[in-house]
Amino acid sequence: MALLLDLLTTLLLAAGVFLGISGGVGVHRFPDFYSRVHAAGVTDTLSAGCILLGLMLQAGLTLISMKLLFILLFLWYTSPVASHALTRAAEHSGLKPVLSEPRDAS
Amino acid sequence: MAYLILSSLTLPAFWLLLSGFWDHGLLLAFGALSVVIAAGFGLRMERLEPTCYRPAMLLRIPAYWVWLTGEIVKANIDVVKRIWWPQEHPISPTMQRLHCTQQTLLGKTIYANSITLTPGTVAIEVSDNEILVHALSGAALQDLATGDMDRRVTRLEGAR
């Protein structure tokens, strides 16, 4: 049972690390500001989620797990606000997105 | 009123879970004091729309979170594919105004936050009944344009 838990934790942590790196690569690969925000979103959401879930498996049913859950909850509440504020600021200062099919970009 | 009920239920639970002091009288008293102060700040801040909070939302929100987590996983897989294999999965950035049916500011906030939380779509601007969305691919925007998430948030909001 402990082995299974450790295995699951390793898998989740590895997935989290892979997703974090993917987000970093995406930030470099994507063409413009707006699409880079999407790549950063991968690091914010599932990468952090996988790592925290892996740590929760190690902590078991304790208050530490509860705190990790709170971290995840507040991260998922606040990171979209940051992304939204960034893109909104960019849009307001007139940064035009690179669009594949220009429609209704008013 | 509902706001007061909600905060007097959730804030003590939050304090107890964070501190873990269940049986220490003095600390519990300090906890109660901090809960009262936090609820007071909350009440002072919630001037715009204090009527949009419904205790029933507490019952509906776990199912929504489960569904949203599923969507986040799917969207993550899609974006990661587009990052590592740009030849097979090319990006096609799109921007469009989408209609939204939420009636309260809280509902709109939940909808815009959910859009931004799923990688591949970002809510840029929120107005009365429209949300300007930037999407990494046309497919992601099409998924959103079907209005599934919009309906779920409106049901969660339960304003009518």
TrEMBL record, chain A:
InterPro entries linked: PhaG_MnhG_YufB
Pfam families linked to this entry: PhaG_MnhG_YufB (PF03334)
Chain segments annotated as transmembrane: 46-77
Keyword annotations of the record: Membrane, Transmembrane, Transmembrane helix
Gene Ontology molecular function terms on file: sodium:proton antiporter activity
NCBIfam families tied to this protein: CPA3_mnhG_phaG (TIGR01300)
Record-given protein name: Monovalent cation/H(+) antiporter subunit G
Organism of origin: Thiohalocapsa marina
Automatic annotation (TrEMBL), chain B:
Protein name from the UniProt record: Cation transporter
Superkingdom per UniProt: Bacteria
Transmembrane segments: 20-43
GO cellular component: plasma membrane
Entry annotated with the keyword Calcium: no
Membrane topology of this protein: Multi-pass membrane protein
GO MF annotation, one: monoatomic cation transmembrane transporter activity
Species, as recorded: Thiohalocapsa marina
Lineage: Bacteria, Pseudomonadati, Pseudomonadota, Gammaproteobacteria, Chromatiales
Location within or outside the cell: Cell membrane
Keyword Metal-binding: no
